Amino acid sequence: LLDKFTSINDQPVCVAYVPPTNMYWASGRFGRLVAYDPRAPSNVTEYVRDSNSLDRFRVTTLFAPLHTDLLLGATAKRQLVVWQHNKQAAYRQVLNEVEDARPPAQEEIFSGGADGKVLRWQLDAEENCDIYVCVEEIPLHNKNILAIAYSPELGCLITGGEDSTIQVKYLNQAVPTFNDMPLPTSFVDHELRVTGLALLKHNVLASISADRCLRTWDLTTMKPLGCVQAAHDTPLQCIEYCQESNEIATCGMGNKVKIWDAQRPAALRLKLVLNHADNGAHDSDDEGGRGPKSNMTWLTRSDMPGLAQATNPLVDSTIKAAMRDTPEVRWVASRGVWVTAADDDMIRLWSPAGVKLSQWSQNGGSVQCLYVDNVNNLLVVAMQDKDCCVYDLDDPIPRATYKGHTDVVKGIGYLAAAKCYVTASWDK
């Protein structure tokens, strides 16, 4: 006896094994399709149901042709249904409200949601089939969680929320003390929502906010170190740290990415500006005129009778350059370059000196999230069309496209043990 499944709620009728999926697919007398992982063995239907449309058909007969990745099913309505294994489809799916997801070193997953809670996910040791289960709910904010960071050295989880606070949660130990008094576990100096966090050297935390401030904090003493007032002319929305050069990159809602020297965290110094206006100067600190796209059309054309259409290409290109937002910036350690994504659907690579090295376009709409996979030297891009594309930085053609989310993806991570990506979306 090799396998025995005892958790079947329906009378089994047929079963088929598809080797590429490493799972059994079975159907009962009511035509309900179920999936079993033989490693446990365990019923994993709830984790693969949506990505495989298992509830769409009532299958009475199953057949898996030898040496193929196909599964054939026949229904009572005399339909023939064919499934094919897709390596780029969702591997496992768990539902909850998530805003961001970050796996720490021990391959746990922490996700933050709109309810202000952080969920702690761990591999189900009993199931033994790559299923993560929620083992703890940690209430930290009273509004949306917008940013998550994890410090392996301090063993703490750090979150930033819409309530304008930064919370520090020690996971496996008590709160450290100073002079026999517990240290504070929150920072409250930001005036508006906290939109990004970055861990620097020597247990220093950098944070950005919609209040346009860039702040640094000492996590050892839980005291503020420094603040750059009006770091950008618009609310800040992304922050990234380069450990090799000890620099911080920030971007707001304009077309500039600013690089800050973090040698002295208490006194950050503006070092460089990456300008996404192709004809702009790289040493300018001016954000440029950003405005809603719908309000800019009057400068380029007129819909009023009797007025000529504007056809000045210089005016048109200048307006488009000013309208660009740069929502994401990341450091690629393996290549020693900055990578940015702008609202003009372009992804750009920059040298540490601020020289634009290359750029390519993508067709999925504005970028929602960038993730640098330093293990496989790849770039994962989540776009407005809800898809995630994987790029080699030397090739503008995506290596893979992941589909399945019904809303935009706001968090991406990599699980080294499972050799797969984990994504978090507003579709819960």
* Portion in helices: under 10%
Please identify the top-level CATH class of the largest domain.
Answer: Mainly Beta
The helix count comes to 2
Report how far apart the termini are: 40 Å
User: What's the CATH architecture name of the largest domain?
Assistant: 7 Propeller
Largest sheet composition: 4 strands, antiparallel
- Report low-confidence residues grouped into runs of 5 or more: 279-284, 288-310, 318-323
Strand content: 35-45%
Keywords: Repeat, WD repeat
WD repeats: 229-270
Pfam family, one: WD40
InterPro entries: WD40/YVTN_repeat-like_dom_sf, WD40_repeat_CS, WD40_repeat_dom_sf, WD40_rpt, WD_LIS1/nudF_dynein_reg
Description:
By secondary structure, the protein is mainly β. It has two domains: 12-84, no CATH class; 100-367 and 417-425, YVTN repeat-like/Quinoprotein amine dehydrogenase (Methylamine Dehydrogenase, Chain H, 7 Propeller). The protein contains two helices and 35 strands. The longest helix is centred in the C-terminal third of the chain and has 11 residues, at 313-323. It holds the Pfam family WD40.
